[in-house]
Amino acid sequence: MSSKLLKTILVSTVLLSLSACSSLTTSTSATQNVEQQEKLYQDTKNYSALISLYREQLKVNQDPQLQYKLAKSYYLAGDSKSSLLYLEPLRFSQLSFNDDVELLYIRNQIQAGDYNEAYLAASDLVALSPKNSEAYNLRGISSAQLGKLADAEKDLNKSRELFIHDTIAINNLAMLSILNNDYKNAVNLLLPQYLNGSTDSRLIHNLVFALVKAGDTEYALDIIRKEKLNTSPEDLVNALKKTEKLPMVGR
Fold it and tell me: Any idea which UniProt keywords this protein has (predicted)?
């Protein structure tokens, strides 16, 4: 082989190598940029931006995990109808994250107020994944909304046995006490969590509600002021005295 031909081959090889490296660097940079955007939107709870991000990605990559993320973002944005539109095709597809798909389906049904469908889907998931604490938790929430308070309590306690986060379990058990008009027990459940530093908004709102209904308006006012829940604490307390609204559940 001539020296000139050898040089030509070597130069071509180097150029191809550099081109491949450049393409790889560009691809890696683009991926990192998308991941950074995703994290920023997640941290700031900018669900509309997440929805746009995932939709653009799905136009070029029909990835089930991306579609799940899109469905979840719609749910978090309060749009159950759109969430279910993208979630339904993923159900029963033998995906590695099947349980997550079903849990999101159940959450959507609860958000949409279809508690019977949520209960049935949660029961199916419990049968398939009897160690899934979130499945029991969501079935408990569904049962509570259907008025099956004893069944709800069993499921919520079971979810706690399976190590669901304490804040979620205690908040939902307090929800049952509120539904039973046992406001003092709700306070007894929620107050230690709050005093231990819990900043969960649902827990704090339920604690204030239970305190007002239990007659401890001064403590409720203290928390409202401290947590800046309302610019007019007295008006909020007076409104809570009159309301029969359901407590906020942890999902």
Answer: Signal
